Amino acid sequence: MKIGIDAMGGDFAPDAIIEGAVNAASQLPPDIHIVLIGKQDVINALLEKYNYQGNQIEVVHAEEVVEMGEHPTKALSQKPHSSISIGFKLLKDKQLDIFCGAGNTGAMHVGALFSIKAIEGIIRPAIVGFVPQKKGGHAVMLDIGANADCKPEVLEQFGVIGSIFAQQTFQIERPRVALMNIGEEEQKGSVVAQAAHQLLKDNTRIHFVGNMEGGDMFDDKADVIVTDGFTGNALFKLAESFYDVAKERGIQDDFIDKMNYESVGGSSIIGVNGNVMIAHGISSAIAIKNMITWARKQVESHAYVQIAKALS
Predict the structure, then answer these.
(1) pLDDT value at position 237?
(2) How many other CB atoms are found less than 10 A from the CB of residue 278?
(3) Residues 236 and 106 in one domain
(4) Contact at 8 Å (CB) between 32 and 5?
(5) Which of 40, 139, 224, 287 could disulfide-link to 131, CB 3.0 to 4.6 Å?
(6) Interior/surface letters 148-182, b for 16+ CB within 10 angstroms, e for the rest
(7) Phi and psi at residue 173, in whole multiples of 5°?
(8) For strand 2-6 and strand 138-142, is the pairing parallel, antiparallel, or unpaired?
(9) Which domain holds residue 102?
């Protein structure tokens, strides 16, 4: 297995990326390799700084860097030798099993659509977030930022692909799918939410359990939480802030600790022909290490292959 990482992407790159990769490599089986993509001399100097002596980290040179504030489409077309562009080329050519990055999120999303492309039949690929549950484990929430506005048919499809993703990632035989709404009753919510509810309810391929309110997000009422990217992003970032608030107030709690963005480290883009994971721009070395652990799980799950089969 080859896990590709954009070594130059992120607010604390390349230092945090290289340190996280070195820490992850020490805990990976010998047949799993990390491929760091970026400026070779910079990466090699940092590998030396963090005393890396093993043979599970490879370096692929990339001369250019897509900066955080750049326009995604323009940056990728104008910088074909950037670490993101080269990473996606390697993924498309099957030289990587997954490509991960903490850099420009838009460029990562556009790069996936331009290179490995959306799975045939997918209306809109989505970003999946992992939501900790009080009883243990995680639910998956989609979308958490790729699609701010969603038609009912898109939300219905999120239910289908989210269900397959949860099934493959967490070995849940029949994942429970819920629609995020402002009330549990069927007639609640916007026109879009009401139409999506009916489509999800009528879809025999999923186990739809109805609407879910924001207060139920951590209560193990669903394995898949369906929402548009605007709502999902707001909810996800609110949940992550609980950890920061608790820390500021001197509160330590095992469950709240799971809301620390570092605990998972990354979010998957699903609905594309390959494995892609994006991380927070502020990612620390711990976050990168944990992202690599989840990246391995994603590759082993073969979720995108199963999604493609289901839609064929």
Answers:
(1) 94
(2) 28
(3) no
(4) no
(5) 139
(6) eebebebbbbbbbbbbbbbbbbbebeebbbbbbbe
(7) -60, -45
(8) unpaired
(9) 1-121+271-302
Which amino acid type is present at position 123? I
Proportion of the chain above pLDDT 90, given as a percent: 97
Residues 114 and 130 in one domain: no
Specify if 106 maps to a domain.
yes
CB pairs under 8 A, 24+ apart, for 259-262?
A: 259/132, 261/287, 262/286, 262/287, 262/290
What residues of the chain score a pLDDT lower than 70?
none
Q: Each residue of 236-279: pLDDT tens digit?
A: 999 999 999 999 999 999 999 999 999 999 999 999 999 999 99
Token readout for 279 is 């991380």
Strands 267-270 and 224-226: unpaired
Is residue 127 within 8 Å of 278, Cβ to Cβ? yes
When divided into structural domains, the chain yields a total of 2
d(CA 240, CA 225): 17
